[in-house]
Design goal:
mainly alpha; Serine Threonine Protein Phosphatase 5, Tetratricopeptide repeat; two-stranded antiparallel sheet; about 70% helix
Length: about 625
């Protein structure tokens, strides 16, 4: 069968054609000179290896054509969808990158993928048509791919592999629609979906930036509004509004139904996650691989919403946290990628179904009808915007209450809430994450290793109570090897940050070898409400350890410690007052301290109080 390109234009001269092919190859290998590429063997090997494969492909096609007496033709061809998508993707990257510096750092590797994508398009066009249409076609492919997934540098060969799969799918999977032979799958989504399956089956999602991408897309304050505005341009030009609107409506309806039945939100803190919102605006809207009719587009979009929700729940069930040497599996961010190839296979059946159904009379057609659709989408967005930006799930109390009530998935979602906030640099969230795994929650077992990880991150972010916890873990060897020196440093940092238990830990650590040094931190811990530190500090003052004896100060410190909940401080303070140990006797004061300790639940102090009130000896 002979293939001819749908449109033709005067080709470039043979010399210019050679220059284009050589330039693309040089551009691919030029990225080997980047310091970042040279510093990472896996990245360097990816650029070189895929470049060599492209070079071998060029040589093979050149040999084929020379034998047949043909030559490659290069046709300049700029198509509106390609440069519009380039601008829209660039707008998203620019706004996103303004709030997350890693985007700018990734730009050179995106450009390397663009060079490789040009080579892939060259090879597939040359093989099929004998003509390469030179335009902006590769840019949307690379843009769509990189909006959702990056592999870490040592594994970047997989990133080039996704680009190669994009073009392979266009060649291998084709069918007839509307009198034309077109590709079946959304090219970018095909590579992304296969990568997603690899991540799930082999549990290698931690080798990608996927989870971080899905979180950081939501960092800009007006992220939904920005993506909405960018998507409007695509909708106005290419009439895909009903696809996006169908997806939004179905997800909102499913979210309401789920919350009504289960009692909590299906997603963490929004009705539609920002990454899914991006997908429904700029990923599933490919007109070639989606239904042609208006009703078909609406159904197509609605099915996307259904599948996203289903995959999110399913992927949440198979995800599991890291433990020991296991990096864990967090794959819920793949929910917006896996449905797309499935839907692409349904595009032609949906069109056939719509053709059999009776059409609804509608006076508007073409651009006028799309204008109405765009207007409806704008109204819908304005209506649901609060559910996107001000969802009750953004409140920590919402998930804490749900977890206490043992609602399905709520405790796991609470942990995800803490993890997300911790990754965003909120030390208190890291601390709370540690507390969760110290205490354990419904269906969330205790995990000393993860607890220490949360406290360590919280301390590094300057949250003083976390320093006290990590100091205690280091002192006792809970979840980490014992190290008294590191424990002392952690306690010092926490105490300097105003955490009473850290001061107490530091004082207790110093007490045996250097009572004088222990007095300061124990005194600070007592002032900050740590009752047991008051008792220890009172003992130093009463006995004159580490400094002069000061019975009056000791008696006052015992009183403070008693009211802070230390039964030992109540007992010691009462005894000092009863017998007058260095201070004037104060038997009513002694009885008062015993009452405080008794009221706090000390049976021993209750018995002593009754004994002294009966006139017995202390």
């Amino acid at each position: 069968m002979t293939h001819t390109p749908p449109e033709t234009a005067p080709p470039l001269s043979p010399r210019a054609t050679t220059a284009v092919v050589a330039g693309l190859l040089v551009a691919q290998f030029a990225f080997l000179a980047l310091p970042r590429v040279r510093a990472t063997p896996g990245l360097w090997g990816a650029v070189l290896g895929w470049g060599l494969l492209a070079l071998l492909g060029v040589l093979a096609l050149h040999r084929r054509d020379r034998r047949a007496g043909r030559r490659l033709e290069v046709e300049p061809r700029v198509r509106t969808p390609h440069w519009v998508q380039l601008l829209m993707h660039s707008a998203v990257f620019a706004y996103w990158g303004w709030h997350w510096e890693q985007v700018a750092a990734q730009v050179p590797l995106m450009l390397a993928q663009v060079a490789f994508a040009y080579l892939c398009e060259l090879l597939t066009s040359w093989r099929r048509y004998g003509r390469f249409r030179l335009g902006f076609g590769p840019w949307p492919v690379v843009g769509s791919t990189n909006l959702f997934l990056w592999w870490h540098d040592p594994y970047f060969a997989a990133q080039f592999g996704m680009i190669a799969l994009t073009y392979a799918s266009r060649e291998l999977f084709r069918w007839r629609r509307g009198g034309q032979i077109v590709h079946v799958f959304n090219p970018s989504a095909f590579g992304l979906a296969l990568a997603a399956l690899v991540m799930i089956v082999f549990e290698v999602a931690h080798l990608t930036w996927g989870h971080r991408i899905s979180l950081t897309l939501g960092q800009p304050e007006y992220c939904y509004e920005w993506i909405f505005a960018v998507g409007l341009v695509v909708m106005v030009l290419f009439r895909v509004t009903l696809t996006t609107m169908g997806a939004a409506l179905s997800m909102l309806a499913i979210g309401q139904l789920y919350e009504g039945v289960v009692g909590v939100s299906i997603f963490l803190d929004t009705a539609i996650t920002i990454a899914v919102f991006l997908g429904m605006n700029l990923l599933i809207t490919d007109p070639v691989t989606s239904p042609r009719s208006g009703g078909g587009k609406l159904i197509f979009g609605a099915l996307y919403g259904v599948l996203v929700c289903g995959f999110y729940l399913l992927l949440g069930e198979i995800s599991h946290p890291p433990s020991g040497g296991d990096p864990g599996l967090h794959v819920t961010f793949l929910d917006k990628l896996l449905p797309v190839p499935i839907l692409n296979l349904l595009a032609r059946p949906i069109d056939r179904l719509m053709a059999k159904l009776p059409s609804i009379p509608w006076p508007l057609r073409g651009a006028a009808a799309n204008g109405v659709h765009v207007g409806l989408w704008i109204g819908l967005f304005l209506l649901v915007r609060p559910a996107l930006n001000a969802h009750p799930g953004r409140s920590l109390g919402y998930w804490e209450q749900a977890c206490r009530e043992h609602r399905p998935r709520s405790c796991a979602t609470l942990v995800a809430f803490y993890e997300r906030a911790c990754e965003s640099g909120i030390g208190e969230a890291c601390h709370n994450l540690g507390v969760v795994f110290v205490d354990g929650l419904d269906q969330m077992p205790r995990d000393a290793g993860r607890a220490v990880g949360g406290f360590d991150r919280g301390c590094a972010l300057g949250f003083a109570p976390s320093c006290g916890e990590i100091g205690a873990a280091l002192l006792l060897g809970t979840g980490v090897p014992q190290d008294a020196a590191l424990a002392e440093a952690a306690f010092e940092r926490g105490c300097a940050g105003g955490d009473g238990p850290s001061c107490d830990g530091l004082g207790e650590l110093l007490l045996a070898d250097d009572p004088a040094a222990a007095r300061g931190p124990l005194g600070l811990a007592c002032i900050r409400g740590v009752g047991r530190a008051c008792f220890a500090h009172g003992e130093l003052l009463r006995l004159g350890r580490g400094g002069p004896r000061d019975p009056a100060a000791a008696a006052e410190v015992y009183r403070v410690g008693c009211r802070a909940g230390s039964a030992d401080a109540c007992n010691a303070g009462a005894l000092m007052r009863w017998i007058g140990d260095g201070i004037p006797p104060d038997r009513p004061g002694a009885l008062e301290l015993l009452r405080v300790g008794c009221d706090q639940g000390s049976d021993a102090l209750c018995r002593r109080l009754r004994s002294l009130e009966a006139g017995d000896a202390p």
